[in-house]
Design a protein that fits this description.
The chain is globular and about 65 Å long. By secondary structure, the chain is of the alpha/beta class. Strands 3-2-1-4-5-6-18-19 form an eight-stranded mixed sheet, with helices on both faces. It has two domains: 2-129 and 321-366, NAD(P)-binding Rossmann-like Domain (Rossmann fold), CATH 3.40.50; 151-314, NAD(P)-binding Rossmann-like Domain (Rossmann fold, 3-Layer(aba) Sandwich). The chain has helices at residues 20-29, 47-53, 61-66, 101-109, 131-150, 177-188, 203-208, 234-250, 271-275, 321-338, 354-359, 370-376, and strands at residues 2-5, 32-36, 56-58, 70-72, 90-93, 113-116, 158-160, 163-165, 169-173, 192-196, 212-213, 253-256, 282-285, 302-305, 308-311, 340-341, 346-347, 360-363, 366-367. The two termini are 34 Å apart. Helix content is 33%, strand content 18%.
C-alpha cells in the first residue's frame, strides 16, 4: 500500500503530518511511503532524514497525489486537488466536516474513504489516536506563554528586599484538555489560578492541579457521551457571565477555551466584562477559530479594548510545531497501526469498529458517519 504525504499549503502552517520516526514505523508495517519534496521543513525535518527512514521523495505533487492508495495530511485538502486522487483512495486529515459540504460531496463523487481526525471518539482505546486532545494540550500551554509575554507583571510571588510581589491571578474558563494544560502551565510559572467549567465532574482535576474551582449553580448542564460540554441555554449563559464578570475583574489574565463540538463557540466574556477588567490585563481567546468566546476578539489579531489586550491568534499548536508534529504523527501512526492488515499490508476499514464508525465520513460513495448524516440532510 502506497502512503503519500503532500506538503501543507495552508498559510504559515509549520506542522507536518509525519516525522521521520513515524515514517520508519509505517515502513516496518509494510507500507511504501512517499513524501513531497520539502514536506517536513516546517518542523525542521529535511528530506534526507525521510530518505534515511525509508521514504521516497517526489518532486511532482500531482504525481504524488494521483498514485497514492492512502493520503495523510494535517489540514483539509484543496477542493481542486480531489479530482487528482484515485477512486477509492483513503484520505486521513482534519476535514472540518461541519463547514465543508462541498468537500464532502467531492469525496462522495470520487468514492473516497475520508477519515476526519476531529471525530476520533474520546474513548480509552482511541485515546492514543485523539489528535484534537493532543493539539489542544499544546494550545493550552502556548496560550499561557503568549499571555505571559504580553502581561506587564511577573507570575510568581517574590520576597525581595524591596518588598513582597504578589502573584499574578489567572482565570481559566473551560477545563477541558486545553484548559487543564493552561492551569498546569500557569501554576508552574507561579500564578494563583482559578478555573470554571460547566461540568462539575472536572472539579477534582482542577483541584489536583492546585487551582481553585469556581462554582456556579446553572441547574442541569453536564457533558456529551464523547466528553464535550453541552450547550447552555441563554438564561444559563447570562447567569454564568454574572459570576464570570467578578472573577475577570480580579484577574490579570483570562484564558477562554469553551467550545461546543460542531457549533459556534459560546460568547462568554462580553464587552461590559472586559471594561470591568484592569488596564494591562490580558485575555487569550482559544475559541476564536470557531467564533470566539470573547466579544471583540478577532481571528489572527491582537485587539486593545479599554486597556485590556485580547489575543485571538490562530493555530497555537503551530507555535510549537516540532512537538505538535510529533504528537500528530503519533496519533496517525497509532490509528493506522490499529487497523493495519499484516497479511495484505493494507489499511482495513472495519465498518463495525467503534473508532472507524466514529471518524469515517464517506466510504464507497456514501456518507457513513451517523454524526454527519444528521447535519447533511
Amino acid at each position: 500500500m502506497k502512503i503519500a504525504i503532500p506538503k501543507e499549503i495552508y498559510p504559515n502552517e509549520k506542522r507536518v503530518p509525519l516525522n521521520p520516526q513515524s515514517v520508519k514505523e509505517l515502513i516496518k508495517l509494510g507500507a511504501v511511503v512517499e513524501i513531497e519534496q520539502g514536506m517536513g521543513l516546517g518542523s525542521g525535518y529535511p528530506d534526507e532524514e525521510y530518505v534515511q527512514a525509508g521514504a521516497k521523495v517526489i518532486t511532482n505533487r500531482d504525481q504524488l497525489l494521483s498514485s497514492a492508495d492512502m493520503i495523510l495530511r494535517l489540514r483539509k485538502p484543496a477542493i481542486a486537488e480531489i479530482d487528482l486522487l484515485k477512486e477509492g483512495v483513503i484520505h486521513i486529515s482534519y476535514l472540518d466536516p461541519f463547514k465543508e459540504r462541498e468537500l464532502i460531496e467531492k469525496f462522495i463523487a470520487r468514492k473516497i474513504s475520508a477519515i476526519t481526525m476531529e471525530l476520533i471518539p474520546r474513548t480509552t482505546k482511541a485515546q492514543k489516536m485523539d489528535a484534537l486532545s493532543s493539539q489542544a494540550n499544546l494550545a493550552g500551554y502556548v496560550a499561557v506563554i503568549m499571555a505571559a509575554e504580553k502581561i506587564d507583571k511577573v507570575f510568581p510571588m517574590m520576597m525581595t528586599p524591596a518588598g513582597t510581589i504578589a502573584p499574578s491571578k489567572v482565570f481559566v474558563i473551560g477545563a477541558g484538555v486545553a484548559g487543564l494544560q493552561a492551569i498546569a502551565t500557569a501554576k508552574r510559572l507561579g500564578a494563583r489560578v482559578e478555573a470554571f467549567d460547566t461540568r462539575e465532574v472536572v472539579e477534582e482535576q482542577v483541584l489536583s492541579l492546585g487551582a481553585k474551582f469556581v462554582k456556579v449553580d446553572l441547574g442541569e448542564t453536564g457533558q456529551t457521551k464523547d466528553g464535550y460540554a453541552k450547550a447552555l441555554t441563554e438564561e444559563q449563559l447570562q447567569k454564568q457571565r454574572e459570576v464570570m464578570a467578578k472573577h475577570c475583574a480580579m484577574a490579570d489574565m483570562v484564558i477562554t477555551t469553551a467550545q461546543v463540538f460542531g457549533k459556534k463557540a459560546p460568547l462568554i466574556v462580553t464587552r461590559d466584562m472586559i471594561e470591568g477588567m484592569k488596564p494591562g490585563s490580558v485575555i487569550v481567546d482559544l475559541a476564536v477559530e470557531s467564533g470566539g468566546n470573547v466579544e471583540g476578539s478577532k481571528l489572527g489579531e491582537e485587539v486593545l479594548i479599554n486597556g485590556v489586550h485580547i489575543l485571538g491568534f490562530e493555530n497555537l499548536p503551530g507555535k510549537v510545531a516540532v512537538h505538535a508534529s510529533q504528537m500528530y504523527a503519533s496519533n496517525l501512526l497509532n490509528l493506522i497501526s490499529e487497523f493495519w492488515d499484516k497479511e495484505t499490508n493494507t489499511f482495513h476499514i472495519d465498518l463495525q469498529d467503534e473508532i472507524i464508525k466514529g471518524c469515517l465520513i464517506t466510504h464507497q460513495g456514501n456518507i457513513v458517519s451517523e454524526t454527519y448524516k444528521n447535519i447533511y440532510k
